[in-house]
TrEMBL record:
Protein name listed in UniProt: Bifunctional homocysteine S-methyltransferase/methylenetetrahydrofolate reductase
Record SUPFAM superfamilies: FAD-linked oxidoreductase (SSF51730), Homocysteine S-methyltransferase (SSF82282)
Species: Geomobilimonas luticola
Entry EC no(s): 1.5.1.20, 2.1.1.10
PANTHER family assigned: BIFUNCTIONAL HOMOCYSTEINE S-METHYLTRANSFERASE_5,10-METHYLENETETRAHYDROFOLATE REDUCTASE, METHIONINE SYNTHASE
Amino acid sequence: MNFLERLHNEILVGDGAIGTMLYGKGVGLDANFEHLNLVRPSLVAELHAEYLAAGARVIETNTFGANHTKLAPIGLERKVREINRRGAELARQAAAGREVFVAGSIGPLARLKGEEKELSPAEMTAIFREQAEALVEGGIDLFQLETFSDLPQLLCALAAARATGLPVVASMAFLEGGRTGGGTEAATAARELTKAGADLVGANCGAGPLEILATLRRMAAATDLPLAAFANSGFPEYVDGRSIYRTTPDYFADRAREMVEAGAGLIGGCCGTTPDHIRLLAQRLAGMRPVARQVAVAAGVVESKPEPPPQTAGFLARWGKEPVVTVELDPPRGMDCGKVLAGSRALKAAGADAINLAENPLARVRMGNIALASLIQREVGIEVIVHITCRDRNLLGLQSDLMGASLLGIRSILAVTGDPARLGEHAGATSVFDLNSFTLIKLLADLNAGVNGLGNPIGDGTGFTIGCAFNPNSPRMEVQAARLEKKVANGAVFAQTQPLYDVARLDEMLERTAPLGIPVLPGILPLVSERNCEYLHNEVPGIVIPDGIRQRMRGKEKDAGVREGLAIAREFIETVRSRVGGFYLIPPFGKYEIAVELVKFIKG
């Protein structure tokens, strides 16, 4: 009897955690667990044997992270097939002579950091196909796609696995509230995975048995497929450098019986579970059969969330009526805010519409821009656009600080990924990058709509005007335009660009971005000397200065350099002012007086 036939007649018990157990057997956290298939196969085989002895009837291969994106950084990219094939063989050998199924474990790809290139669906599918084919060669009976938080990526893995003809379990990791880290609701995941051809859908990892149970109930209402449940052993407690899971096998097994009643047909354990959990699980579920259930699947169901109010206030309200000018000022390196306050007052008097405050540009420590923005708005009375990066805070910290910013009256946010910490002055600092600019924009849109990253309500919403960056100096403008289109789709309503010096570049930018229908403010960074000009052109990513302008700055230093740089900026502004609705001024070296001159010129 094959796997799907057995599943229709009985509850199948899966195994438990692999990483937890290998760590408990002395494997260091810095080791690659999947590589053990080649270098310590007896240890992996021993673990399979322990779970089989405990009563598991579906055991997973030790191949969860054995894909190219995770093995390449440690020099094992050429062993992807060998590691997967050997992992399947070890499980197959352990199961020999038993009525046991071997599930080929496939987990998500390595998470992108910062502005690393996103893989296309075709590229992701090819990576998963390499892993899937090797697992089939090793003798698996089915696939266990697990711990995915990104639904499009899981759909690519599902396509690769289905191409082999074997049954596929498609499982996602849901957080509290029944949403993945990528924002997909459990019912939506169940519908999409059913439509894509999964044989089972389910949930694994996550917050613990109780949350998995609630998630299963949501999924059961959206699909008639059998469900799979592999819960963590509750929340971990960090003790003496290791994570300790406190959920007892007895409690875990009791919740599993409820999971059967909710529609689960395949039940095992994830992080923190051991053969003791599986042994009691097998005893409690012995003789139980899948339950009949009613599924109410509404055709064409679309997730809905409250729409944020239209943008009617703030600096963008002037767009199309008069030229809008925003000016970037640097937060201080220390505690003295006098210069930035003086600059803000002078720029407001000159007619600037908003001040930009970057967040630790070039990964160098400056005063926190949210608190400084609140001070400027309160004492100067000019709107501040706060730049928020993904480098310095994790997902929790970002949400907390953004809600706090809204409470302080911040209404405009420019979402950027941020320069990597390695570029900065603190050698021990690390980059977080839980999000990138695209997903940060989506988070901001969710907060505006009154929900946090988990989809839980936060009240009336944050009311942010969401901005993003655009690089018009890229050799392939169409790539940048496509990126901007994605940012707009995620919720951005305006863009500010890298410094521009080439009118032809600006015209191409306007042509390519016009269909998006959002304000785009070209960046203007006045030059101050030949040395400054050459540095920007040769050393700063995203800035390209035409040869003619570089020639004009040749030999210009000090006051002469400033005058020539201002003249170049004025000429550029005068040439394009009829084609744009505003400008983003970036005074060099914090010299706000230069920006004051340009604001008066634009507004005059």
